[in-house]
Structure formats: structure tokens, C-alpha cells
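QUALITY CONTROL LOG
STEP: pairwise intake check
CHECKER ROLE: data steward
CRITERIA: each record must contain a sequence immediately followed by its C-alpha cells, with no blank fields

ENTRY 1 OF 2
RESULT FIELD BELOW
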Amino acid sequence: MAKRPVLPASVPGLYLSHRDRGFTAHVTASEYTLSTVRRLTASVLMAHGAAHEAVATAQLVLSELVGNAVRACGPAVPLVIEVYRTALSVAVNVHDPAPELLPHRSQAPMDSDQATSGRGLALLDLLAPGWSIEHSLIGKQIRCHIAV
């Protein structure tokens, strides 16, 4: 059994707790908290035996989900982020407080110069096929699973 990684203490805008084979982070979205959670994602997932490629993919998916939440809800939005290892995947879930603001795809083709947004959903389709949106007590939750 893997030893629990030590979670950083006393980071402004960030409250962390352990969960089975991962962590839960309550954050106020900022570049600093995202950077901290990305680093923590790597160290915790590697401590639980995830391959480097799965870790890098989880970090990319996490960044995309947080970026989407900030674009939808505004800067300094409160988020709950869950990252953990399962037997067959790495899970990355991001909760935000706006259930009515759903991700939408750009009408322009992906390779079009006119596409200014919506490319991230195609990225999620590629990296975490079957990702889903669910209502949560917080608002909504985007759930992604990355094969390991």
C-alpha cells in the first residue's frame, strides 16, 4: 500500500484533504492555486503508481476544466477539485457553483482561424473519452477518467 503523500499546509485560497488514493482541494481559482494543485496532482498520482503519461494527461485535463470554470464563472470562483487513482483510471473532477453554465462547442471547425473557444471540449474528448457533466450539491461537476 502506498504511503500517503504529505499535503501542503497553509496555502492561501486552498484547503486540502486526503481521499482514498488521492485528494480533494477546495480552492479559490487563481494561477497560484492552479499551479499548486497541478504539482500536487503529479506527486499524489505518482505516489499511487500512476504512469508519467497518465499524470501529464491529468494535469492537462485539470487545467482545461479549471480554465473553463473561470471563463464561465469569473476569476476567483470557488471550486472543488478531486483527483484520485482508481484501479483502471485516474479521475479528475471539478465542481463549480454555476449549474446553468454548461460547456458548449464552437461552431467553427477545430482547425479554423475563426475558432476562439470550444477546442478544449475536443481535447477532453480525446484525453478523457466519456467525460460527463452532473449536477452536484455545489452546482455542477465535470467528471473525467483517464485510462492508466
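ENTRY 2 OF 2
RESULT FIELD BELOW
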Amino acid sequence: MKANKSVAAALILSALSISAAWSTDKSKTNIGDDVAQHVQRQAVEPAADQAAGQATRVGSQAAIFGSQVPAGTASRTVALPAGMKYINVASGDTVTFRSGGQEATWRFAESIRGTTVDLGVLLPGMPNAQGVRVYVERSHLFTGG
């Protein structure tokens, strides 16, 4: 008798969960479309989401080294000719980079040990920036020198 009641309860619960799942496609998402439309749209747009995610990762990696600032704040300007291999900067330095008619200004973060980064990571849209190593000196702020 107990076994019959357990089986009956399991069947009822199973039927309830199936009906809830069956109607899920009619539920609304937080942007107002139903679940079936949402899933179809996500299947079409994964490449755009991947590109946005990659840009976010690159942006967050660049933020470790400082940030882009308005052009009038630079202490010096550096031209980026084709074939340039590296540039040395001081921690906390603000530099305007010029290449191919474009200009961007970057303020380097204070670095405890000194660091290096590809300028193409900091300024991905800047011509001739890819492959140029930026050597950031160790900060005098943290070393007392």
C-alpha cells in the first residue's frame, strides 16, 4: 500500500514538473520576449557576444597599466614610425602617441617593480602600435628613490 502511494506521488510530481517545463516557452524573459524567441536569438548572436567579451578582457588587461586620458594632459609626445621596437616611460608618466594621423594619450599607472606591455594592448586602434614594447620604470613613489 505504501509503495502504491509513493508511486502515485512520484507520478503526480512528475506530471507537474513536465507541465511547468512544457509551458516555459511561453514565459517571458526580463527583456520581454518569450523563452523560445530568446534562445533562437542567442543562437544567432554568439559571435557578437564573443567579440564584446574579448574587448572587455582586453580593456581590463589594459587598465592594469593605466588609462587613456585627454590629450592636453601629456608631458611628452612620441611618434610611432613603422618598425619601432620599444619605448621607455616612467611610472605615472602621461604620453601622447601619434601615428598615421591618429593621436591617443595614455597615463601609465605607478608600478612597484616596473613592468612591460605591448602598446597594441593599450591602444588597439592606433596604427604601428602592435609589437611596440612599452617598458614602464619602477615607481619612485613606492621605492622612495
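INTAKE CHECK: passed for both entries
DESCRIPTIVE NOTE, ENTRY 2: The chain has two domains: 2-44, 66-143.
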